[in-house]
Amino acid sequence: MHRRHLAAAVLLLAALLPLTACEAGLPGSGRDRAPGWVEDGTAELGLKVTGQPMPESLRTTQLVLRHLRDRDADALASLARDDDRDPDAVARRWVEQWGEAAQKPAQAHFEGPDLMRLTVTVRFEGTAEPFELVLDRTDGDAFGVVLPQPAG
Fold first, then answer.
1. Is 64 within 8 Å of 79 (Cβ atoms)?
2. Which has the higher per-residue pLDDT, 108 or 86?
3. What does the alpha-carbon distance between residue 96 and residue 79 come to, in Å, rounded to a whole number?
4. Which residue in 103, 107, 96 sits closest to 133, CA to CA?
5. Distance between CA atoms of residues 90 and 96, nearest Å
6. Alpha-carbon span 15 to 118, nearest angstrom
């Protein structure tokens, strides 16, 4: 009889362990704590990272790549720094130029130790030309995307 109780206790603990490890409650409990990268679609990017990104710069880069992959110029423009004069035009141009390449896995290299502004060089699989992304710290920990102004 003692072995049955022990076996039942072990099975119960084994069933509960994944729930406690993820800090998620029972289904429907409202305590689901899925990581943001799972909820926002950045988990599917197939992104490899080199250099030393900060969590905030990596997050902003992932969002840029997701919006390029989704060909969502409006969402991409919303990541621009507040002082960018025409983010919509640049975002549309980026989507036209990089939207197809963004369908493939990419490698992002984070340049330099600058805590206020940094360059991220993204290379999409199958493309020779790199996509250069400049991030600028706008408020506190948040990074905004510095969009190059259209020529002319």
1. yes
2. 108
3. 17
4. 107
5. 10
6. 45
What proportion of the chain, given as a percentage, has pLDDT over 70? 64
Rounded to the nearest 10 degrees, the angle between the axes of helix 55-69 and helix 87-98 is: 70
The predicted pLDDT at position 8 comes to 54
**Residue-level length of the chain:** 152
Q: Which residues pair with 133 in a beta bridge?
A: 120
Contacts of 141 by beta carbon, 8 Å cutoff, 6+ apart: 56
Q: Give the rounded distance of the alpha carbon of 38 from its chain centre.
A: 9
Number of helices (H), then strands (E), in the chain: 5, 5
The answer to whether the beta carbons of residues 81 and 144 sit under 8 Å apart is yes
| Exposed/middle/buried for residue 38 (C-beta within 10 Å: 0-12, 13-18, 19+) | exposed
* Residue spans of beta strands (DSSP E) within 56-129: 106-110, 117-124
Lookup: tokens for 38: 């799972």
Q: The pTM is what?
A: 0.70
Residue at token pair 């950045």: 42
24 has a pLDDT exceeding 60: no
